């Protein structure tokens, strides 16, 4: 993993010596269309809040297939319609749940999914990050997702905006009705302890700004504080005008390599000293709306 | 720095084998009074928002003496009264400014402070963190502050809740009128590039929950969106009933060593697999209100 750095540096335009270096945002803005890939729409789930605000979540079926299948089934069955965000703990997570978690489970739901906390690295396309990590032997991106790895296994990392399944004490793994999203400093101690099932691709700025709960663990103490969820739906079930069309930057593209290098070595004019390093969760994979056909 | 781990482990109670391990919060709750130290009140600055909410900031004069002296002078001169929070960028920073930044400077203000981005390690009491860091050769706590170090120099780290001085392009260093606070994943690439001057000890949950700005870099596009600042004052200038009395956990205490170890190795019943590591910014130094005299 540590050798990746020299490869990344070699991909940088040599013109950087003459012109001011680009910022990470500028690299993203100038990335060619070939650096972007459509997010398959059958992976997207859309949460609409009580005020009409949309939160678009990309699911990760390659990492937590049973949990993700549950979540899609729950969304299709309108399980969260009329539900609420009931917990916002500062510098930790935002959590939501259905109106009635004890209602009979829809068919197809696996009530006790396996502990989908890590998987084999086989079959994944990996790009390593060339810097030390405080939690894992190696970190990087697997099929575009931020991951940790011990060599043989790979697991999703609890970065800002990552979505996971709340659970009770082990061996419970959660059936997917209660979900959480990381709202601040990455709580990587949760890696391999809960099932991460996706990430927020748009609307995170809504969830990040929710009022913090004053109860234990950030739960709202008064039901009147709950943040209403109007609906959660697979994107494909929405009216066409409401369907999101998003693209992620390919983590195997030269543009991403340049972006990653710039995040680790800021040499644009604002900076006086590049860090020569970056943490996994400080390299969010760029997202954009799919450009209209010309 | 890396040897510190065995020392920390040696401090753990051996009873952990018999009873369930404590969570970090439980360790904090059970810490003896000797583990806590009063925050000197002449270090505290209190921001009162338009809705009456209080944000208490501890300044760091040992790291950025000229910038901190400026900030205290500005607060004493009521420079921020009637000012506003004008920028909230999701997953980055919250930033505020006076009503009139161009008004004549109070006497004592150093208009162009030196670049107080790092300092000598001499004279600081250091506790090293025994885990890899993505940004610095070594990290830990210096006089209770989260820091990076290259051996000879020490610098404050951009963790959640850390407060810094916004500036223009170098060689500008900012005079301290525009301040920012980290509101999500630690943007450690800013370490040694701006002057960090303190940290939010209470009220961060208010700043973290502010609506995100929709302009470039998260600035509010409409003045009506600005979040009003009623006043910013040195704590000692407040009426006694409004003065905060806070304590920080001593980072050289056995309780802190146990807390740090528990953050790195969660063995309390909720966890199935401890991380065996923790990042600097995931070890927030515990804060509490000073207990009343018995």
Automatic annotation (TrEMBL), chains A, B:
A Pfam family per the record: Pro_isomerase
Q: Which positions, given as ranges, span the membrane?
A: none
Q: Which GO terms describe its molecular function?
A: peptidyl-prolyl cis-trans isomerase activity
Q: Sorted alphabetically, which InterPro entries does this protein's record hold?
A: Cyclophilin-like_dom_sf, Cyclophilin-type_PPIase_dom, E_coli_cyclophilin_A-like
SUPFAM superfamilies with a match to the protein in the record: Cyclophilin-like (SSF50891)
Q: For the PPIase cyclophilin-type domain, which residue ranges apply?
A: 45-217
Key words of the record = Isomerase, Rotamase, Signal
Q: Which domain of life is it from?
A: Bacteria
Enzyme class, top EC level, equals: isomerase
Show the Gene3D superfamilies listed in the entry: Cyclophilin-like (2.40.100.10)
According to its UniProt record, the EC number is 5.2.1.8
Task: Give the signal peptide range.
Answer: 1-18
Q: What is this protein called?
A: peptidylprolyl isomerase
**Organism (species):** Tanticharoenia sakaeratensis NBRC 103193
């Amino acid at each position: 993993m540590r050798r990746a750095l020299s490869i990344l540096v070699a991909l940088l335009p040599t013109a950087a010596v003459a012109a001011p270096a680009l910022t990470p945002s500028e690299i993203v803005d100038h990335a060619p269309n070939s650096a972007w890939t459509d997010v398959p729409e059958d992976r997207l789930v859309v949460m609409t809040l009580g005020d009409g605000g949309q939160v678009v979540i990309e699911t990760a079926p390659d990492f937590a297939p049973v949990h993700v299948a549950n979540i899609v089934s729950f969304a299709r069955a309108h399980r969260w319609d009329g539900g609420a965000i009931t917990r916002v703990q500062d510098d930790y997570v935002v959590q939501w749940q259905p109106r009635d978690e004890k209602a009979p489970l829809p068919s197809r739901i696996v009530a006790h999914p396996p502990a989908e906390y890590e998987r084999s690295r086989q079959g994944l396309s990996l790009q390593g990050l060339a810097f030390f990590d405080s939690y894992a032997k190696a970190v990087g991106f697997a099929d575009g997702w931020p991951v940790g790895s011990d060599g043989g296994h790979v697991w999703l990392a609890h970065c800002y905006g990552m979505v996971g399944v709340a659970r009770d004490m082990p061996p419970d793994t959660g059936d997917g009705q209660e979900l959480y999203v990381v709202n601040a400093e990455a709580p990587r101690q949760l890696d391999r302890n809960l099932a991460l099932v996706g990430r927020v691709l748009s609307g995170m700025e809504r969830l990040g700004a929710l009022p913090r709960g004053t109860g234990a663990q950030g739960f709202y103490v008064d039901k009147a504080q709950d943040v209403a969820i109007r609906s959660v739906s697979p994107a494909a079930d929405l009216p066409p005008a409401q369907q999101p069309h998003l693209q992620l930057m390919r983590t195997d593209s030269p543009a991403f390599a340049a972006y990653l290098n710039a995040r680790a070595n800021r040499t644009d004019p604002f900076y006086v000293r590049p860090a020569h390093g970056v943490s996994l969760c400080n390299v969010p994979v760029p997202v954009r709306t799919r450009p209209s056909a010309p």
